[in-house]
Amino acid sequence: EDQALESAGRLNKFIVAQFLTVEMTIAREIIKSTVDYRKYKCIELANGLRCMLISSLKRGESVEDQALESAEGYECEEIAEESDGVDDMDDMDVEDECSSQKLRRSAAALCIHVGSFADPIEAQGLAHFLEHMVFMGSEKYPRENDFDDYVSQRGGSSNACTDGEYTMFYFDIQWQHFKASLDRFANFFIAPLLSQSCVDRELEAVHSEFELAKADDHCRTEHLLTSIAKENSPYRIFSYGNRKSLKENPAAAGTDVYHLLREFQLRYYSAPLMTLAVEAKDTLENLENLVTEIFKDMPNRGNKPFDLSVFREPFDMSSFNKLYKVCPVKETVSLSFTWTLPPMHAHYKACPLKLLGCIVGHEGKGSLVAYLRAQNLAVELVAGTATSNDLQHNHMNSLFKISIELSEVGRKSPNTVASLVFSYLRMLREAAAFSLQDPKADTLPTGRRSFSSLVPEYQKLYEAQFRFQEPFDPCDTVQYIAHAMLTSAPEEVYTNGTLITEPDLKLYVDVINLLSPDRANIELILPEFAQEATSDATYLTEPWFDIKFKAEAISEDQLKVWRNPPVVSEFHLPEVNRYIATNFDLLPACDNQKVPQDLNLQPGREASRKFGRLWHQQQTKFNVPIAHVITSLRSNLPRCPKNKALLKLLAASLDQRLQTLAYAATEANLSFSISGSRGCLTIHVSGFNEKLLLLYQEIVLLIVAPVTGSESGLELDAKKFATFKDRLRQRTCNKVLNPADYNSHIRQYFSHENKPLVEDFMKALQTLQLEDFQAFVPAFLSTLYMKTYAYGNLSQTEAEAFFDFTVKTLNTTPNPSIVEPSLPAYPAHVNHIRVMNFNKQDVNTCLALVAPLPDTPSEDLRLEVLVNLFASCLTEPAFAYLRTVETLGYVVSLYSWLLRSTRQAGVTLLVCSQANKFETSRVAGRMYAFWFRIIPHIILRLKPDAFATAVSSCIASNQLDDTTMDVELRRNKKEILSDRPIFDRRERTVEILRSLSLKDLQDFYRSTLYNSEKQPLLMVQVDATSGVASNTNASTDCSSSCALKTFDWPVTALPVTSTQLGDEQTSAQSVDLPKALTSCAAGLILQPENPTTLDLPPPPAVVPIEDARVFKSTVLFPSANPTAC
User: In the chain, what are the domains?
Assistant: First the structure.
């Protein structure tokens, strides 16, 4: 207690919130940021459950205000956020209609002090499996999916996760539904059903989740490291679980998995092993009464947590200190160094892992990665410990890691890279040792900065960042606190491992000394090892992920070289940070603006107006001295594949060169990003406003700096250009090797007139040379249309300074023309395209049924509002039927969307499945069954109260205040960059929603999505060849079969045969409709058991797309002119 108070006084910048514990009944203080207005109280119930209560009522607000708003239709919450895949190569033009809203909802998280490390060896993955099973009902609420249905229908969301030492369950929802949701939530742990009838279905979800991880190189290599731990170590547990570990192996051994599941739950799901955090717009007193009443029956079984202290030093150096050559599934090219350290939890006040990670991972002058980049050996480096990841930070050990993404030169010279790593670590070790001997010295004998002078600077950086940390979203807050309470005193949940309150030079030196070559695990991941493994019998196969790898001893001669390497003269500790802010004053709140204003429309700005628009919004209501400036530079160059590739190369080269030039800014709570998409180069800077213009000017000056021939050390030559080009190729291939991203790419290609296929993009990229880049940059900058959005703690004059500096420095010609994008003209039937997963050994498939609304964008937003309401009624039924009942796959979603560029709206039904479980014709048929047979019954027979709940949910999502700066920024940024800004979109949406009746929704459905004569559909299938219709693993070789280092990625539409179409129709028609409706919509519709009351029209024809390019050019955009560079 005294230490917490002393720490708070010493920082002199943190305000505190008081709480009491039931048992000790003494005042303590929780250290939090100055802008965190919430009140906290920690209690411990009689059963041993520890709870953090968080009241998010602001000054002047009351519970009565919340109740009044609820009575006015302020009822439900936003639709759970979804996205249309992640496809950087395709610029991601899709956004969820409600995704801009992160509302201050009520939330709860319960963390259990047990995870996969406690799994029994005979049923590995059991903790993860139990996490899935818990959500399947309780004795008080026995209906399967009752909780999910209740939360989803009221606009909330829920999820869970399992790590090594803990399992987390959480949800968020609107305040007035919080009590009922919390009661349902609590009963999962008071008396879960764990119904045996759900076992097989949830096991399929677990297996599907594993198959997704199996195709992810990060998951694979993380698992490989744990697999070399000592034989009895919990690290050796296969934490994901799959059919083999949870069904086949136990069955062969005569083990009853269901019995183990029950036993595990009874042993560890006990109140003293749990921490609970709840946040709501309610008083602390009310929250305490609520939590006490609901959780008082949580059983205390008297068990202790799984003890990991007996498993200290989990690795044997004889197997750990080796070079591991690993075959990736994608084109991953990396060299990683991992050290096992003692557990570091006890040293949280010194933050050794965070501090050393910042120093080793620094990217400015003198850093390891800056030198590697200068020598063209690497492109990225990440260092440190992910303290939130139990595999890296647990009570057995802590892992410190340096991961390097190699260049083409580096992949051929891994020993050179390794030698440089140990050279840098020697420099760091000697600098730290000198400071330990002479802590007051600011410089080393070499004249460079000392280690001891660096520590106070990082202290100040961490304190400034913490001081103005905005409150997290409620769902993130409760998860963070519930997890932190497992190992932190309640008053230190925010500062534990965040602030250096007790620097310890000796500890830092001790940790650095452990980063020696004799203790390093070195992992080299190269695609070419897959070919090597076919003829080298010394390659082994990890049994769960089928990872091909080879372990080689590091010779004593090599270790001698690495133990005492020469220190590269360019290596030194980070220089004094010139970006550290000292002025944190806020502008007058009376000058804040509700919406952005275009300053270039004001008198006196006529000369600037021709260059574009300057949107300004002073905003200090969040009480942080932070600002954002986003500038979009749109060129008039043709949007062809060649220029698209060159623009992405320009953005990538600028971003990497800036890392060396301005990395210190990112450590001073400033950030920058540069992206190139849709013909625009976009700059985004943010952070403490005092030094923001300085950072922005560095970026703009670099844009106009000579590409070659300068002496800055940041210029490009042919070799560095080739590195950027190869990295773009790698990242593009790794995207399309993911079937969900590949599916998204196909959909994006059809939606946008100027978007190229990956095949055409890669062919254009292959031909590019440095000379093309040198010619492109001035051509791109010669004629521009600018949009700048200055937001936050910036005055009008300061905003104008950003815009005017850009115009003056770029010295460009105005480009006033804005071409309205065209909409695709889909025919009114199911346009069906089928392509094959590029990774021939990946069993994952992805199918998307897309319904674009041809009459959007509408003038009054009515259609957009209706389609969003339509999706909100169907999100949970789609999940319940396609995932829970049909068990098609782990990823199932139905969501509405709005394209940023064209503002066209629509709906997508997405399912990711596995070919070793279901034929795609089976999956597609079930999707058609839901779309053409189940949805009509839900919408056309929807209960009035279900409709009212959906409407209230959408209203609430558009009425609540923004919770952070980022939320308001994202919403207005989308409007500004869309060319059709509607800043009162939420208000207009609410007005429309309040006017809607159930008949309006049904009429909308009948005239659009239900109308097969008018409504077009697109079915995109990414199929897989591996292990079709098999229940065994597809292959023991999970490496990609695509040619290595190739630019050849042909997108070929596979034949959609009459047999396949017949199988899809059979799959759709074989669904037992009464049973399906009862399982997914029993509470939503009238008489779900009697679907014959609705006469459904026949489904539309399915017409295969035989050639993607021909279909796009002759059907979707027939009047488009071919784009030539």
Answer: 33-64+101-309 (3.30.830.10), 312-469+495-563 (3.30.830.10), 589-814 (3.30.830.10), 830-960+997-1033+1053-1116 (3.30.830.10)
